[in-house]
Structures are given as C-alpha cells and as structure tokens.
Design a protein that fits this description.
Order of helices and strands: EHEEHHE
Largest sheet: 4 strands, antiparallel
Structural class: alpha+beta
Low-confidence stretches: none
CATH architecture: 2-Layer Sandwich
Number of helices: 3
Mean pLDDT: 93
Distance between the termini: 7 Å
Radius of gyration: 13 Å
Shape: globular
CATH topology: Alpha-Beta Plaits
Number of strands: 4
Helix content: 25-40%
Oligomer: single chain
Length: about 100
C-alpha cells in the first residue's frame, strides 16, 4: 500500500475553504482506495510552520498513484489550488 500525504497552507486565510473545495475534486478520481481532506487542528505550536489543510490518500500500489496523478481532474485541481496556496509539502511512502 502507498500512503500519500500532502500539507497545504493558504497564501490568504480567506481562501482556505476555496482550497479545500478544490482539493475535494480529487475525491472523484477513482484510483485511491481511501481519500480525505481535513483542516489542520493547529495543535503543534513547536513546529512553527502554518499548515491549513491535509490531504491523505491510500493507493494499492505505485501504478495506482501514478494513474491518480495522470487523471485530468488532478491537473484541474492544480490549476485551481496552486494560485491560492503558499506551501505544499507532499510525501508518499510504502506501508506494510
């Protein structure tokens, strides 16, 4: 299984819901076995980084993740969200 986690911060806090709505478009892509978008609870005051939203998805294998990223909805989401975000950090890892 591949776990896909992406952190986002908004350039303007007023755009957080617009970013969330844009990220929710990704839920229509059929290649993930689990997908969710959530607001960060902001409970880690030590880190100093402002993370507003988290995308968490699971994929059966690397081919499913690649198919997800190749879907036209993925490109549509990027076009909508990229101008509104300040930070994006992504990580993919294999889980046993």
């Amino acid at each position: 299984m591949i776990r896909h986690i992406v952190f986002f911060s908004a350039a303007n806090p007023d755009d957080i819901e617009r970013i969330r709505d844009g990220l929710m478009m990704l839920s229509r892509i059929p290649h993930s076995s689990h997908f969710e978008v959530g607001r960060n609870l902001q409970s880690d005051a030590i880190a100093g980084a402002q993370v507003d939203l988290v995308v968490y998805a699971e994929f059966t294998d690397e081919a499913a993740l690649a198919a997800y990223k190749a879907d036209p909805i993925y490109a549509e989401c990027i076009a909508l969200v990229r101008p509104l975000r300040e930070l994006r950090i992504a990580a993919d890892f294999k889980s046993e």
